[in-house]
Design goal:
The chain has about 350 residues and is mostly helical. Helix content is about 45%, strand content about 10%. It is elongated. About 25% of the residues are buried.
Length: about 350
């Protein structure tokens, strides 16, 4: 009889176990059924995950081109097909078109700035030979000596040490391994295929600003193209060529869909910032909603956006904030003493 690994799973007439036990038919040895061959092994499952991660990496340039294509389509519909020509009509149409175009271009610049800041900014990697000074996971103030890291065993039993077996290195607090990037990422939130990058400690602010300006831009485009969309279903004559009308219709539908989806995503991340947690941490701590890093809304916000208010709405940090706030480097995070004492 063959042996099997993997988890419990049922098939027609057979029950496969995980712990190297023989596969037996539920209908008895003389049931006439052929014995089941070995189920997909862990190696096959790992290979499937590897192929999935490789496919995500391959989407890189495609997703960037897709984003730029949507931006180009929207730009043509707003500027060239509708509000650009309206500048020559005069009166109220001139003022309305001018206001829409100015606001549209300001938001577009901020959107693209934030987007490429997320794309080209490394989310944060573990420095070579990084060692924790204190046990930040349990709140123990005793420093970890160098002898505790020499000859690191494969089976880590020291609760004070976070170790990544895939990267074979120690992990700072709030650091997680990304299977798509193939490395550990500081304060990893998630891997985003739209920005072809991980979202982590060093570019999380830029990602939030990208969501913020995307929502504002798509909402503006949706409202500005709404009269033309309504006119599309009316009996009146629609100005412009058939290509312009089709472009306007498609741009309205796409921007409405993005505005609604990004709105929900933005609300979720605002709640995460307010609680000083990440998407991964929120998933891991579903049974314990209290976060040891939650220091209040104001301090939680500053840990992401910095203390300099002039830089809150641009994808950059001031030199002063980078100097006085080690948390922006992704390696040190202050936490609540009371929750530290409880080991949360």
């Amino acid at each position: 009889m063959p042996y099997a690994y993997a988890m419990y799973w049922r098939t027609t007439g057979y029950l496969v176990r995980k712990h190297n036990v023989r596969i037996e038919s539920k209908h008895g040895p003389n049931s006439g059924l052929l014995p089941l061959t070995s189920p997909p092994s862990g190696a096959v499952m790992a290979w499937n995950v590897f192929k999935f991660c490789t496919a995500l990496r391959g989407l890189g340039s495609v997703m960037i081109l897709l984003v730029l294509a949507v931006v180009g389509l929207t730009y043509y519909a707003v500027v060239f097909a509708n509000y650009g020509p309206a500048l020559y009509q005069g009166d109220i149409a001139l003022l309305t078109s001018l206001a829409v175009l100015i606001l549209f271009h300001i938001l577009l610049v901020m959107l693209l700035w934030s987007y490429f800041a997320v794309v080209f900014t490394d989310a944060g990697s573990v420095p070579p030979n990084w060692r924790p000074v204190l046990d930040e996971e349990s709140g123990d103030a005793d420093p970890l000596t160098g002898s505790e890291f020499s000859g690191m065993p494969a089976d880590i039993t020291d609760p004070r040490v976070r170790y990544c077996r895939k990267c074979n290195q120690l992990k700072p607090p709030r650091c997680h391994h990304c299977s798509v990037c193939g490395r550990c990422v500081l304060k990893m939130d998630h891997h985003c295929v739209w920005v072809v990058n991980c979202v982590g400690a060093l570019n999380y602010k830029y990602f939030l600003l990208f969501l913020f300006y995307t929502f504002l831009e798509t909402s503006l485009v949706t409202l500005s193209l709404l009269p033309y969309f309504v006119a599309f279903f009316s009996d009146g004559e629609i100005p412009g060529t058939p290509g312009m009308v089709a472009t306007t219709f498609l741009a309205f539908v796409l921007n409405l869909a993005f505005a609604l989806s990004v709105c929900g995503f933005l609300i979720m991340h605002i709640s995460l910032v307010a609680a000083n947690t990440t998407t991964i941490e929120a998933y891991e701590k579903r049974s314990t909603p209290r976060s040891r890093y939650d220091l209040g809304c104001k301090r939680n916000f500053e840990q992401v956006f910095g203390m300099d208010k002039l830089y809150w709405f641009i994808p950059a940090y001031s030199e002063e904030d980078l100097r006085r706030m080690p948390v922006l480097q992704g390696l040190e995070y202050p936490s609540k003493p009371d929750l530290d004492a409880q080991g949360l």
